[in-house]
Amino acid sequence: MLSAEGLWFRYHKRAPWILEDLSLTIEPGERVGLCGPSGAGKSTIGRLLAGYRKPSRGAITSDGPVQLVMQHPERTMNPHWRIRDVLAEAGSTVDEALVEPHWLDRFPHELSGGELQRVNLARALLAEPRYVIADEISASLDAITQAQLWHHLVEYAEAHGVGVLAISHDQDLIAKVTQRTHRVE
Amino acid sequence: MSPLLSISGLRISFVQYTRGLRRRETVAVAGMDLAADRGQVVALVGASGAGKTLLAHAVLGMLPPNASESGVITYDGAVLTSEDRRRRAGHEIALLPQSVDFLDPLATIGRQVRRSAQLAGRPESYAVAALADRGLGSEVLRRYPHELSGGMIRRVLVTMATMGDPQLILADEPTPGLPQADVTAVLRDFRALADDGRAVVLITHELRGALEVADSVVICRDGRTIETAAPADFTGDGPDLPPYSRALWQALPGNGFRVEQPC
């Protein structure tokens, strides 16, 4: 289980609290939606759960690796590396349903936003995570590419018993891909 | 009669030099057509990176120096040269920019709104009245951009963009990040601006919002406009829609979340 208990977070001692006493659990194989208005701290929760930042107070425990997938894949890759090398950081058996073989020799800026997000998801799954935090992963994509990406992630999560936290402002999307929703205000 | 704005065969590419003198051309807009007349809201819908913002920047003469453009843009029946574009920008033709970062974070709203009134040749009192028309009281004048909500900032930007009484408004992604009530209010503003006899081009990647106010929907993909559809046809399974529009419609999470590619 991935569990956050009594999380408080602020950037420094005089800054306002971004999270106040947040608790949340995700079971392996479970898909949870995280909803709330902009500025409610949704992305902060994702970053804390994935270990990118430490909570000011509270504890996070996990029984396996957590991978964070973000909205803008081009910001998460070295622009001077070919896709092959970007993926090699995480593993070697590339899922051809996500990454087409002829992309491997290209640079990130030579793929479209949708293609690059598929590479980004493939890289996260290569690391064999137990939990995936998907922070607005399809907010910049057209509806067809969004549906493809999510179908793939849901199938993978069901086949491998991976827990997913889906962060999105799109209520219809959350209703479609998750089993329950956690709201933050 | 020709429509107020007509764009045909717009193509925009960028020349870049990599590793010294190796020249490389990237085509960002490969062929876009769009027409918008007075009284109309035309939505330009497509994913990020499809070239929508560049189309708006081209109409205002805001493309960077390494961009090269071909195709024809006409305004009120006459071809818009680059001098015409710069001269009309901010007066007859206005851009509502995509990002709230277009406001100066270190200047009060009052100072920025008065400045835009001055540029549009209006008295300062006009700026205050224009803000009040959009439901923003005079207390807003003393505040800085970070002290306003996303919805209020949008209204400030709309006020500034319409200060010169433009006939053509290009609104670039005006709604992301806003709560639903603000989205509805902003979209209604555009409808009202068009109903007053202006032409509005609404650039967005949110098909649903566009359908609420647009008279026609132009779909673009990979730098091309590929289909034009009537908002009323986006209903049920979309039997009367052109193929890619129908696929987009059916792929929405609320409409089946299907992924059949039309091509």
From TrEMBL, chain A:
One of its GO terms (biological process) is transmembrane transport. It holds the Pfam family ABC_tran. InterPro entries: AAA+_ATPase, ABC_transp_ATP-bind, ABC_transporter-like_ATP-bd, ABC_transporter-like_CS, P-loop_NTPase. PROSITE patterns: ABC_TRANSPORTER_1, ABC_TRANSPORTER_2. SMART domains: AAA. Keywords: ATP-binding, Nucleotide-binding, Transport. It comes from the Bacteria. Residues 2-185 form the ABC transporter domain. GO terms for molecular function: ATP binding; ATP hydrolysis activity. PANTHER family: D,D-DIPEPTIDE TRANSPORT ATP-BINDING PROTEIN DDPF-RELATED, TRANSPORT ATP-BINDING PROTEIN. Belongs to the ABC transporter superfamily. This is ATP-binding cassette domain-containing protein.
From TrEMBL, chain B:
It is a peripheral membrane protein. Its EC number is 7.2.2.11. SMART domains: AAA. Pfam families: ABC_tran. Its main location: membrane. The complex is composed of two ATP-binding proteins (NikD and NikE), two transmembrane proteins (NikB and NikC) and a solute-binding protein (NikA). This is Nickel import system ATP-binding protein NikD. It comes from Kribbella sandramycini.
